[in-house]
Design brief:
Length: 252
Amino acid sequence: MRTPPPVPILMYHAVEDAPRPPKYKHFYVVAEEFAGQMKILKRAGYTPITFGQLAAARTGTFTLPSKPVLLTFDDGYANLLTNVHPLLGELGFSYTVFLVSERVGKTNDWVAAEGYEPTPLLSWPEIAEMQRDSHVSFEGHTATHPKLSTLSPADARREMEGSKDALEQKLQAPISVLCYPYGDVSDSVAGTAGELGYTQAVTTDFGRARPADNPLRLPRISVYHVPPFSLTYGIGPWNFRWRLESRKDARP
């Protein structure tokens, strides 16, 4: 049996209609930019997979395509409904959205303390509309988006367990994947996540998921807004391709 290839797990946030002020660049990409990135994946022969398929490949019960990729979207922004869901459906691309259970239908108000303007999040009716299509999966991103390692063990457990329970009740589907807010995780937090029934979890550590990785500490590749021509980041599409294929993992 061949060793499964490393899998790039791409991390997106909002997909906006137009550019935002420079300080927001790590929180979004523009819809036109995103569409171009998806065309790059298609032309390069990438096949989006699900977390279920990633887990099955690790146990040898699923054979990954030659160029797998996982598409993830943190927080569940409302603009996914118009700027992501239809496009990925047309392309036949599966993707995963991580929901903050107590902020559904509200905003990402946790950014206000840092001087950012909150952005609307998906509502339950919008999530139900998207859920009717098989190419999207919803998973957990805690109840209120705290830094879990800064909480007491009991409070961290409540954040992860409360989110899992609420999402399973609303979505009528199992929740088995966790996205740590801010990528913040400790051994205690990861251990509790496993105890609660999360079988996989993602961080913000840069890297591609390898077969030997701890499934509760999977790395990702952050994708954020890069203008078509940038003195800092070069040509936008080339920057995306470099991050996807050439930039070295942060880990040894």
